[in-house]
Amino acid sequence: MNRNHAATRHPAVPLSIIMPVLNEAGALPAHLAALQPLRAQGVEVVVVDGESQDDTLALAKPLADRVLTSLPGRARQMNLGAAHARADALLFLHADTRLPPEALSLITQALATRPWGRFDIRLEGHSPWLPVISTMINLRSRLTGIATGDQALFMRRDTFEAVSGYPEQPLMEDIDITRRLKRLSRPACLRAKVVSSGRRWDKHGAWRTIVLMWRLRYRYWRGVDAEALAKAYRHVR
Fold first, then answer.
1. Alpha-carbon torsion angle 81, 87, 91, 95, nearest 10
2. How many other CB atoms are found less than 10 A from the CB of residue 230?
């Protein structure tokens, strides 16, 4: 579908949740089921599938308001979802991240005073280091004003458009957009926690993953191309 197509805005829709997915058939029904109470409050759920090879697309359709298809690429998928979303408040939610029950009221209150924000995070998994890593992520984000996609970024539509959306690159799209958002305003740093999968740390080891991510971010800060970083990330993933 054409990213430049703009959906008709509906002021009565308090929030559009945009979820990029790729081969998430195993876990997606449970994650979308958790969003049904928000849909009952008028929240729109937009799922953007990046050419999944499993049943992701079929499983999403009965549990979302809109299901779109896109070329793969998380940034591209989120931009497409934003173009078709009906609300003036946007929340970008990873498929393996769960929102707190009071998410709608918290986001509404935050966007009344700040143009964008994010949640604190709690990583869920087997590694005993995950609580420490979660605390480090939250502290780093609060100090720097930079956030990651796992923290469920939310923003006003006009703010999203003011920074030209996500850069359509294969890695660090969240770091890039939050840097540009930070030039407009510091984020609303909500202490309420989203729960996100710690499978990356469980699979590769906590400290090895921390070192890898910091190395990639340092290289990105030094100007290394995101395509090259994505290749390095895939090589060790």
1. -50
2. 15
Enumerate the β-bridge partners of residue 190. 119
Strands (E) located in the chain: 16-21, 44-49, 66-69, 89-92, 97-98, 116-124, 154-156, 188-197
Name the amino acid, one letter, at 21: V
Q: Which residues contact 199 (CB under 8 A, 6 or more apart)?
A: 96, 125
* Edge-to-edge order in the sheet of strand 116-124: 66-69, 44-49, 16-21, 89-92, 154-156, 116-124, 188-197, 97-98
Contact 89, 13 (CB under 8 A): no
Phi, psi of 144 (to 5 degrees): -95, -25
Backbone angles phi, psi at 235, to 5 degrees: -65, -35
The structure tokens 């929102």 sit at 99
Please tell me the distance from the alpha carbon of residue 180 to that of residue 74, in angstroms, as a whole number. 18
For 13-61, write each residue's pLDDT tens digit: 999 999 999 999 999 999 999 999 999 999 999 999 999 999 999 999 9
**How many other β-carbons are positioned within 10 Å of the β-carbon of residue 68?**
21
Q: Convert the pLDDT of each residue in 142-193 to its tens digit.
A: 999 999 999 999 999 999 999 999 999 888 899 999 999 999 999 999 999 9
Look up residue 45 and give its amino acid. Answer: V
pTM confidence score: 0.87
